[in-house]
């Protein structure tokens, strides 16, 4: 129950990975047949990502992870001391660090939006943070702390009214429910393949709205970024697409596997996945709330919920609860620092029986703990 950290790879994904490495192993990586096939797989992955997100392939940069995507955007602006960026208080470390680093090195100012489970409160809180120096919003689509779904469409509308672009971190969103970026209206969207898309580690994606292509700086560049390179004059032109951010030798087999992961999840139908997971999450939260001393930190309203369920116990610290759940019932979750607790991930392949094992395990551990302490 840890897809929010790493999803399992279906056989088709592992097969694609192994097959690609076998071609390389048997014929050599620069054998024309292998090179062409890997090249087609790589561009095929871009097409599949673009289709998944409802954008054009030219707007997709294939990255290695979410952090890289966020950094490409952070490095793309000409920051001046005193410029402001709005984040939430529940970002992943990688949603904080690039901005904290810019605060340290360039004098960027960070404004923090305190999240609640109420979309109305989030939107009114956001309105109070804009100033004439606001240059960017960089927020999670779904928080990794509690799985709260943010009102991203409304956030983009509010921000765009002031001419301010929005970068969304979609690490916990893609593969959990349909994500159509043109409907959301964001300017940048960073996501990864190794969680809910069931792809391999080391693959990600970044959407860049075409309007920003000429305006964003390239923080890094190399072969692959250019369309033309003149060896005599050393003049070059960049690719006229988001592919300009991809440079140097890349692990092409990983992207063949990413493509398979996305195709696998999409074949299950993301609408159906959302329906099943929402019901399972609501059931799990209801049952957790019946266990003495358990607090559920994730939203209870299905409209703002996802398959991430975060809770804590008054009787036992999260790390210890997780260790016991793993050693006795082989249930794997992940600790969360803020709010302090345990996060479990419910996916479309999570069985109701597995949820029952989790609940039974928690009840047993807490009952034993209470008995030991004479409660
Ligand atoms: C919301 C969020 N952002 C960013 C990350 C970091 O992702 P990556 O390891 O792909 O850079 C994670 C990983 O858990 C996450 O949940």
Characterization of this structure:
This protein has 375 residues and is an alpha/beta fold. The protein folds into two domains: 11-267, Type I PLP-dependent aspartate aminotransferase-like (Major domain) (Aspartate Aminotransferase, domain 2); 269-367, Aspartate Aminotransferase, domain 1, CATH 3.90.1150.10. 41% of the residues lie in helices and 16% in strands. It has helices at residues 11-27, 32-53, 66-74, 93-106, 119-127, 152-161, 181-184, 252-268, 270-289, 318-329, 352-372, and strands at residues 60-63, 84-88, 109-113, 134-140, 166-169, 188-192, 204-208, 226-229, 236-238, 294-296, 308-313, 334-336, 341-345. α2 (32-53) runs parallel beside α8 and α3 (66-74) packs parallel to α4. The longest helix is centred in the first third of the chain and has 22 residues, at 32-53.
What would a concise description of this structure say?
The protein is an alpha/beta fold and 375 residues long. It has helices spanning 11-27, 32-53, 66-74, 93-106, 119-127, 152-161, 181-184, 252-268, 270-289, 318-329, 352-372, and strands at 60-63, 84-88, 109-113, 134-140, 166-169, 188-192, 204-208, 226-229, 236-238, 294-296, 308-313, 334-336, 341-345. The chain has two domains: 11-267, Aspartate Aminotransferase, domain 2, CATH 3.40.640; 269-367, Aspartate Aminotransferase, domain 1 (Alpha-Beta Complex), CATH 3.90.1150.10.
């Amino acid at each position: 129950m840890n897809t929010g950290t790493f999803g399992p790879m279906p056989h088709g994904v592992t097969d694609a990975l192994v097959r690609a490495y076998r071609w390389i192993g048997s014929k050599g990586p620069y054998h024309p047949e292998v090179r062409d096939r890997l090249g087609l797989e790589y561009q095929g992955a871009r097409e599949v990502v673009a289709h998944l997100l409802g954008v054009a392939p030219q707007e997709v940069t294939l990255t290695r992870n979410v952090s890289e995507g966020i950094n490409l955007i952070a490095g793309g602006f000409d920051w001046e001391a005193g410029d402001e960026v709005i984040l939430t208080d529940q970002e992943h470390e990688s949603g904080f660090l690039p901005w904290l680093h810019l605060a340290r090195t360039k004098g960027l100012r960070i404004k923090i939006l305190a999240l609640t489970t109420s979309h109305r409160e989030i939107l009114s809180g956001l309105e109070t943070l804009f100033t004439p120096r606001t240059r960017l919003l960089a927020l999670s689509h779904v928080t990794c702390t509690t799985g709260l779904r943010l009102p991203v469409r409304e956030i983009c509308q509010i921000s765009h009214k002031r001419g301010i672009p929005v970068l969304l971190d979609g690490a916990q969103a893609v593969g959990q429910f349909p994500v159509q970026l043109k409907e959301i209206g964001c300017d940048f969207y960073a996501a990864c393949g190794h969680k809910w898309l069931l792809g391999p580690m080391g693959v990600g994606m970044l959407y860049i709205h075409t309007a920003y292509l000429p305006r964003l700086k390239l923080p890094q560049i190399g072969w692959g970024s250019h369309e033309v390179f003149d060896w005599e004059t050393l003049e070059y032109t960049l690719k006229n697409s988001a592919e300009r951010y991809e440079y140097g030798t890349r692990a092409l087999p990983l992207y063949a596997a990413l493509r398979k992961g996305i195709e696998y999840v999409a074949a299950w139908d993301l609408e159906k996945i959302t329906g099943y997971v929402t019901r399972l999450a609501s059931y799990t939260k209801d049952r957790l709330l019946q266990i003495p001393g358990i607090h559920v930190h994730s939203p209870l309203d299905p409209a703002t919920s996802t398959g991430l369920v975060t809770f804590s116990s008054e009787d036992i610290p999260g790390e210890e609860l997780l260790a016991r759940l793993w050693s006795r019932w082989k249930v794997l979750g992940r600790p969360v620092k803020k709010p302090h607790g345990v996060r479990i991930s419910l996916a479309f392949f999570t069985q109701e029986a597995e949820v029952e094992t989790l609940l039974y395990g928690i009840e047993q551990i807490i009952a034993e703990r209470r008995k030991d302490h004479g409660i």
